[in-house]
Amino acid sequence: MSAARRMERQQRRTAWIFLLPLLLTLVAVAIWPLARSIFFSFTDAYLDAPTDYGFVGLENFVEVAEDPVFWGAVRNTLVFTLVSVGLETLLGLAIALLLHRAFLGRGIVRAAILIPWAMPMVVSARIWEWMLNDQFGLINKLLVALGLVGKGIAWTADPSLILGTVIFIDVWVTTPFMVLLILAGLQLIPEEIYEAADVSGVPHWKRFWSITLPLATPAIGVAILFRTLDALRMFDLSYVLAANNENTMTMSIYARDQLISFQDLGLGAAASTWVFMIIGLIAIVIVGLLRLDRATG
Amino acid sequence: MTVSVATTRRYSNATYRTLRRVKTAGLYAGVAAVLVYMLFPYYWAIVSSTKTGQALYQFTLLPALDFSNYRQLFDNPVFMGALVNSGVVALVSTAISLVIGILAAYALGRLHFPPGRIVLIAVLMISVFPQVVVLSGMFEVIGWLGLYNRPSALIVSYLILTLPFTTWILTSFIRDLPNELEEAALIDGCSRLRILTHVLLPLMGPAIASTGLLSFILAWNEFLFALTFILTDENRTVPVAIGLLTGSSRYEYPFGQIMAASVTVTLPLLVLVLIFQRKIVAGLTSGAVKG
């Protein structure tokens, strides 16, 4: 018994040694910077002289909360996240169901659909910007040739369309990720269940609702969680397409703007702390829902 | 009785065959539609990158095979420098993350270590939290290290992206390796580090390759830190160089060149992704589904 106990203690010590580089690095690049960001949000520091500051209490938080531009950014981010994750899930599920069937060249097709996901977001934004260009873009030329519109639509310039365009591009980029995760979930469903359904004469449409969907739900839930958290921090797509245009400005762009463009370290830190709290709250709610789902199902 | 006749009606053999043919045709049509949606934009970028002048604005689906956009791009020292910067930054931050990640994964996946759960949850939380939240604190760290406006600033800051990722995925890989070899080595008196480097590491080649590739892609594609911590053109990475490429006005946008740059940056990734496709799928799903 004591030998086993000794070995356990020794394993613990070894584990700490093996984990030391990870823990030190994460403290240096994640936990410390996070703590400093929260610290700065209570000060009036500027980026060019970060050592020269006084404490201002919650003033920065109030100032951000009173800025309508910030709430516009929050609204854009939430609309973007809700719509694009919703569309990606539906489209991802449909494509995953299609690619789950047996057909010639399935392996190559599954590899090929990874292409939009592997590209830098900047490149995807640039390619679609070119395809959607109001004068020379392929999409507009096609629409005009088909007689659907009189002249090209300014997809990336019209204030009422631009958020929709951002969502459209994001759906294109991230659907492959959804497809992959949902496909992996579908592969975990045992074939016998479908055979049993066949024997008992369960109609095809009912199989989807009462076998496939309930059994794939855990995989879909995890995929939605990851994608939601990723969408909430989106920066590059909106920035490349429209810089700090208020119609597509996300929370991340707003916070970076305060910090870099206006050099206001305190305000920028407060804005990013707001972002942290909003995303944290949403994450807690989603994880709670997933747990609930697992507990009741 | 009459109701069940309607649902279990027997078709003739010929009807069955047509039905099946229609179904198969539908399946292939669906797959073709998916492929066009996913791949056409990249194809169009390739086509456009080989056109210049008026040809760029014409609707021809075949490439024009005019490579002057590429020649201009490769003669552009800023772009070529950005390619080198991107490559070095992504390679070095991936290498560091792999070494630290393998060590941590051994402790988290194979040793009896109850606090490991908390470490793993912390790692997962760091990998999903928004980068902008650490931006001001990271600015200070970069300043202290004296790395502002240097590519090495990105190597340091990218660890927040790549390290949680490699740790998480390698832990789930290392957990699935068989126990017997390790026990035999332990009885022979091997140290833990030796077991890791001589017994487990040779078995982890595919896992390390796919994890490394995904981490390389993460670092290669990063935009926010690269935009913020680098001030001058010669130190930029490719995504930022492409993001900031603009013409003298909205109507003189150098689309041909931008497309050539886009194709160039993406090509190495695509080749790697197609080669390692199976491994990437295994890596991504082992992290998300099992965890």
What does this structure look like?
The complex is a heterodimer of chains A (297) and B (291). Chain A has 297 residues and is mainly alpha-helical. Chain A has a single domain, classed as MetI-like (MetI-like fold), CATH 1.10.3720. Chain A has helices at residues 2-40, 59-65, 68-100, 106-112, 115-118, 121-131, 138-145, 162-187, 191-199, 204-232, 236-242, 251-261, 265-296. In chain A, helix 8 runs antiparallel to helix 11 (236-242). The mean pLDDT of chain A is 90. Chain B has 291 residues and is mostly helical. Chain B is 74% helix and 0% strand. Chain B contains 14 helices and no strands. Classes of the chains: A mainly alpha (297), B mainly alpha (291). Chains A and B meet through helix 1, helix 3, helix 4, helix 5 and helix 6 of A and helix 2, helix 4, helix 5, helix 6 and helix 7 of B.
